[in-house]
Specification:
four-stranded antiparallel β-sheet; 11 strands; 19% helix
């Protein structure tokens, strides 16, 4: 790279490009031709699809994300979708459940949701939408929590997207407050009206929020190591 002093003209002259970088006048040779392989072109296209799809999904799953503005998480999330997509044509993707890389994706870097919430659950797709069945459990025995916890919020969020069209296909979330005690919690069924239409990717995420008690209120216990959240299921139809 050359650097020009005194007189400076910006723009292109022949195969030379004159520009400023960090306040300095510079020049470089313009490459006349850049050859891309078919695989390179496909990866480039799919990278754009992954970034767009990841943004739509994050908007729909925001209630289950401790820090939705975390750039590192955003990049990893879109990257997980890109890994699954690979060099495939988004218009000819085959139905898949669970979707690799996206299923069990962790929004945080500490212990995962499944490690903190040791309760059996299943994600099912019906004619009316998404149904999540949670088995009965004992909170103290089946939920790992920090000292001072009096209750736990279980947040479940579901988001759908049509990757080929780049549009959302619905999103919803529900929160269950669980007293952190030795009392058995009965089985629960949560329903979300998001249809599994052909060409739709449906992602289900979950998060645990721990609450303590102070001055007759229940503040959130902000402990970095106790903020489990992530994808519990991803399916493509």
């Amino acid at each position: 790279m050359a650097r020009i002093d005194d007189v400076f003209v910006s723009g292109t002259f022949g195969n030379m490009v004159f520009y400023r970088r960090m306040g300095k006048a510079c020049a470089r040779i313009k490459r006349s031709h850049i050859k891309q392989t078919v695989a390179t072109k496909k990866r480039s296209i799919n990278f754009g699809i992954a970034a767009r799809t990841g943004k739509i999904l994050r908007a729909g799953l925001i209630n289950a994300m401790p820090n939705p503005r975390d750039r590192s998480m955003q990049s990893r999330f879109s990257g997980a979708f890109a890994k699954w997509l690979g060099q495939s044509d988004v218009n000819t993707l085959q139905p898949c459940e669970p979707v690799p890389y996206l299923t069990n994706f962790a929004f945080t870097k500490e212990d995962t949701f499944n490690e903190r919430f040791k309760v059996q659950f299943s994600v099912n797709f019906t004619s009316t939408g998404v149904e999540i069945r949670i088995a009965g459990f004992n909170p103290v025995r089946n939920i790992s929590a920090p000292a001072g916890t009096v209750s736990v919020h279980l947040v479940i969020a579901v988001a759908g997207v049509k990757p080929a069209k780049g549009v959302a296909a619905g999103f919803a979330s529900q929160t269950i407050e669980i007293p952190y005690s030795d009392t058995e919690i009965p089985p629960k069924i949560l329903s979300f009206a998001i249809s599994a239409d052909p060409g739709t990717l449906i992602v289900t995420a979950a998060r645990l929020v721990y609450l303590g008690v102070k001055n007759n209120q229940k503040p959130i216990l902000n402990k970095k190591e106790f903020d489990p959240a992530g994808v519990i299921n991803a399916a493509y139809f």
